[in-house]
């Protein structure tokens, strides 16, 4: 019997959420994943770190609904065959705390490796901007500049983060009613 073919990843875009509308789309994904799906408290999901955080939004294009029928026999070219960007994932970085947090991908899109894509996008951004935007504590070691990114990981996700070089540090702890582990990744920056 042949192995099933891997899922073909849909087209996607990742962008820094630089408007309230895009940040709200990040919140909507997080609420769907953490509150609705995983049962965490809505009161804890949007927190004091959100206003100072750098949010990344992952979207995929979906066909726009057809235009509403009108008396015209000719479709409006602005709406015919268009697409809408549908939010499917998010991650945030908290400058000053050097913290990767709130990685969330809509359940039906997890099979495509979008969690990996989001972590890579965040780390690339931090690598390129840590020094010039003063994102966090950068230090020199061996003639190179580094930043330690930390993450409070749910236990079942630890193997995912270790693939990026994150290492467990200290004891497990409770965060919002679920066991977590502090993970640290030493990232070389430009």
From TrEMBL:
Lineage: Eukaryota, Fungi, Dikarya, Basidiomycota, Agaricomycotina
Pfam families reported for this sequence: Acetyltransf_10
Domain N-acetyltransferase: from-to ranges: 12-190
UniProt GO BP: UDP-N-acetylglucosamine biosynthetic process
Top-level taxonomic group: Eukaryota
CDD domains named among the record's database cross-references: NAT_SF
One Gene Ontology term of the molecular function aspect: acyltransferase activity, transferring groups other than amino-acyl groups
Gene3D superfamilies xrefs: 3.40.630.30
The name this protein goes by in its record: N-acetyltransferase domain-containing protein
Native species: Cryptococcus amylolentus CBS 6273
């Amino acid at each position: 019997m042949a192995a099933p073919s891997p899922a073909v990843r849909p087209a996607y875009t990742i962008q820094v959420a630089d408007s309230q509308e895009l940040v709200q789309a990040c919140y909507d994904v997080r609420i769907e994943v953490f509150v609705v799906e995983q049962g965490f408290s809505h009161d804890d999901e949007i927190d004091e770190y959100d206003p100072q955080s750098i949010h990344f939004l992952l979207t995929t294009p979906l066909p726009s609904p057809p235009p509403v029928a009108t008396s015209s026999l000719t479709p409006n070219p602005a709406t015919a065959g268009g697409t809408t960007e549908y939010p499917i994932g998010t991650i945030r970085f908290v400058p000053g705390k050097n913290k990767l947090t709130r990685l969330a991908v809509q359940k039906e899109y997890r099979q495509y490796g979008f969690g990996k894509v989001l972590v890579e996008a965040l780390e690339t951004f931090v690598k390129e901007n840590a020094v010039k935007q003063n994102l966090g504590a950068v230090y020199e070691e061996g003639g190179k500049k580094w930043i330690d990114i930390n993450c409070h990981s749910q236990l079942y996700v630890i193997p995912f983060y270790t693939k990026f070089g994150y290492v467990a540090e200290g004891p497990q702890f409770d965060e919002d009613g679920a066991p977590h582990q502090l993970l640290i990744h030493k990232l070389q920056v430009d």
